[in-house]
Amino acid sequence: MPVSDTVARDDTDAEGDRLPINELFASLQGEGKLAGVPSTFVRTSGCNLRCWFCDSFHTSWEPTHAWMGLDEIVAEVESLSPEHVVVTGGEPLVHDETDALLSALADDYHLTVETNGTLETDAPVDLASVSPKLASSTPTPENAPADVDPGVWTERHENARVDLDALASLVERAAEFQLKFVVTGRGDLDEIESLVADVRGVADREVRDSDVLLMPEGQTREQLARTRTEVADLAAAFGYRYTPRLHVDLWNDAPET
Ligand SMILES: C[S@@+](CC[C@H](N)C(=O)[O-])C[C@H]1O[C@@H](n2cnc3c(N)ncnc32)[C@H](O)[C@@H]1O
Ligand SMILES: Nc1nc2[nH]cc(C(=O)O)c2c(=O)[nH]1
Ligand code: SF4
Ligand SMILES: [Mg+2]
């Protein structure tokens, strides 16, 4: 199962704000405009959506984590060398304390936030890496992960997956942004075109085609091998940018990569 279900640390009794942390590790940014850049990843646990294909099962369908104080997280980030920090999840913006973590890191690091685009933040962000979820992400009894009954999540996910006001806010407030869509096939492109048009309609900032990234769906090398050429061809045909999933190519679905 991708992403650790065993966290090699215990909850701490640190004073003050804490966050549920699933993983904290150094790697290369595998996705998006900064692919290849050495980065420290802080992965919070807990999400307000349930994509059937979620590659971080132990932050969404089956949340696993240790509670860490913000000072402890900052100290562990400092002990790793990258100048870039990626705060991800789960959905990092479901936690109020994520804003405080971002503020604590902002002076010393380039900050990317990986978010599903349904929640806003006032915190300082260098790159808002926004991945709005398409209809093809909605869980059903047929596509849900093994041994999982999506239950109420089919409707809850479908109702919550797009919030245009939150998308506009994320696009406007961050120093830079990208809209990074997980693509399962040609059937996703009409919804992407329509959603990009909607964001252009509400956001008080230009959204260039080069800010729109198509990323092939796939948690493993074998799954990606089945989707990436079609998604790359779609990016070329529609004039959007393609992003690989370098970490999957390099390390498959190993934890802490
Ligand atoms: C695990 S999510 C965490 C951040 C946030 N919840 C989100 O969805 O953007 C990190 C990134 O992985 C992408 N992702 C998750 N599962 C994927 C899969 N099976 N194939 C391709 N990308 C995937 C998400 O769309 C997002 O861009
Ligand atoms: N190497 C690597 N790059 C990533 N970019 C975004 C990731 C994420 O899970 O948010 C991720 C990840 O899990 N690993
Ligand atoms: S929004 Fe992100 S973390 Fe949540 S289920 Fe979807 S891919 Fe996983
Ligand atoms: Mg990931």
Description:
This protein has 257 residues and is an alpha/beta fold. Helices cover 29% and strands 20% of the residues. The protein has a 9-stranded mixed sheet. The model has no long low-confidence stretch (mean pLDDT 96). Bound molecules: S-adenosylmethionine, ligand 2KA, iron/sulfur cluster and magnesium ion. Residues 47, 49-51, 54, 56, 59-60, 89-91, 116, 133 line the site of iron/sulfur cluster.
* Strand/helix succession: EEEHEHEEHHEHEHEH
What is the terminal-to-terminal distance?
Answer: 13 Å
Nearest-integer average pLDDT:
96
CATH class: Alpha Beta
The poorly predicted ranges are: none
Structure classification: alpha/beta
Main β-sheet description: 9 strands, mixed
What ions, cofactors and ligands are bound?
S-adenosylmethionine, ligand 2KA, iron/sulfur cluster, magnesium ion
Fraction of helical residues: 25-40%
Taken as a percent bin, the fraction of beta residues is 15-25%
- Find the CATH superfamily: Aldolase class I
CATH architecture: Alpha-Beta Barrel
Shape descriptor: globular
Helical stretch count? Answer: 7
Binding site for Mg(2+): 56
Binding site for substrate: 28-30, 43, 88
Cofactor: Mg(2+); [4Fe-4S] cluster; S-adenosyl-L-methionine
GO molecular function: 4 iron, 4 sulfur cluster binding; carbon-nitrogen lyase activity; magnesium ion binding; S-adenosyl-L-methionine binding
